[in-house]
Amino acid sequence: MQLSTKHLLGIRDLTPGDIQLILDTATQFKEVLQRPIKKVPTLRDVTIVNLFYENSTRTRISFELAEKRLSADTINFTASGSSAAKGETLLDTVNNILSMKVDMVVMRHSASGAPHFLAKHIPAAIVNAGDGINEHPTQALLDALSIRQALGGLQGKKVAIIGDIMHSRVALSNIYLLKKMGAEIMLAGPPTLIPTYIREAFDVRVEYNLKTALQWCDVANVLRIQLERQNQPLFSSLREYNLAYGVSKRLLDSLDKKIVIMHPGPINRGVELDSDVADSKQSIILQQVENGVAVRMAVLYLLAGAKGEKN
Length: 311
Hints:
Helix content is about 40%, strand content about 15%.
């Protein structure tokens, strides 16, 4: 089986079949990662450039590790140490890289739509590793794999996405994916961090009371407060935010059921999540990190045309 698209620009462009194929392939690669020798020769003849115009630690390292596990040749590019800092355009930068015979570009950029622009102008396959406040498709895929492993599936599951919805590309990709796969979604947080249009545009529930949202859901995906994207104060203080919307052990213990806790990272401990929640048995945050490598291996493998064998 193959994906219906040449690129991974966003979850919006994937079919439910595409999502299922990526998750199933990632599950197979996760088994590979449990072996004593974790490297496979699957993409030995493929060259991938990691093009990061925006700071990243977890996503960049996860993609680099996935590429190395697949035996791909990799080139790592950061804008701060390149001619982009001297004014070179995005298209010129990529064309220069493509002259080195690159097959695939993994790209993170602060401008929404930057990967889509590249996909129209260059022949290489593009993987969106996060564009502005638009999408972060591989994060949504690894979140879906984590939920599937924890609860046995996505269909009919109740997922609350909590926090800074307005500035979160993770939230948008998760909404697209969960809707396509039959899950129910509730967005929760302060009114200033939830766009007014989102309830009708995406047909999702919106809740401003954190305990009500937690009592409703099977899974709480708690988002990072993105202060760097906020041009004006949207709540009084981090302390006030934590008191109203921080997930604490005391709050979880007050519910009449156990729920699964997720976070895309990095965590602002003591703000969105207290440490005793992030490190608790209800948390699958470390599983998310582990699943990130398997999901990104699956995406690269499928987009490269499934050259070679996984085993």
